Amino acid sequence: MLITGHGKHQYEVIHDWAQPPDTLRFGNTHGVCEDAQGFIHICHTVHASSASPDAVAVFDPEGRFVRSWGSEFQGGAHGLQYVREGADEFLFLTDFLHGVVVKTTLAGEEVLRLTYPRDSERYQDGRKFSPTNVAIAPNGDLYLADGYGSSFILQYDLHGNYLRTIGEAPGDRDGELNCPHGLTIDTRGPEPLLLVADRTNRRLQYFTLDGGWVRTESGAVHLPCHFDERDGVLLIPDLASRVTLLDRQNQPLAHLGEDSTGDYSQLRRQPRENFRPGKFICPHGACFDHEGNIFVAEWVEIGRVTKLRRLV
Predict the structure, then answer these.
(1) Whether the model pTM is above 0.90
(2) The CATH number of 3-310 is which of 3.30.70.920, 2.120.10.30, 1.20.950.20, 2.60.40.3250?
(3) Cβ-count burial 129-143 (b if 16+ within 10 Å, e if not)
């Protein structure tokens, strides 16, 4: 058994937990989330040798393949966010290659689509738009990270109407962003705040829900990609070979599966037999499940989804 973590944060490392059928080969595995049934949804770019072009694959709690969909997102499927609205469940998928964000049912039926933000004055000069992740506020507002494009955050209402553009970009001063790769609404404090993974700047930034800068935090993360939260613990897939857990004050609780060799940029392109057991290469997306286990999708050319089974 491979174990990572310490104290109250120990996990069994189960690499390649998700087993797609022979007809579907993962490309870079980017996003992962759990639905109310405990099914795990994974989005990936699709490997060139895959017979199926579907970019979203669904697995049961044992890692068995259930279904796939989303061939139109081949090559660009990136962020995947689950949201529940009353009795209804939806996914938000960001496609950086095709420049779209779609809200779908769990079966992939589209209910909302956002494309190039023509209503934003910041984009009227034809700036690049390449979205990476979304976050949903308690009132239904949608925050969209243009992480691979022009490094702004775009805010829409629940119907997809543009509200505002947040942040200055690109830059490294307070309130400026450079690859805001992931984001979430942090409700662990006295009021909800927009938390941004300012990846290229290797830090976290907080904003009010109407876009005002609050504070910048650095030191606990290397290359933060996105977030999930459970019982006050913040989960961060950190692209530089580790998964980070932070407490309510954003102090580190554990760095899981950390590989300090620093060769992740070369290793991520190599055959699976060269991957180091128990160590991460490039964690890109991560989520808790309802039992406190963690699922990690990595940015590696042949795809990899690891389950961290909670031991304590």
Answers:
(1) yes
(2) 2.120.10.30
(3) bbbbbbbbbeeebbb
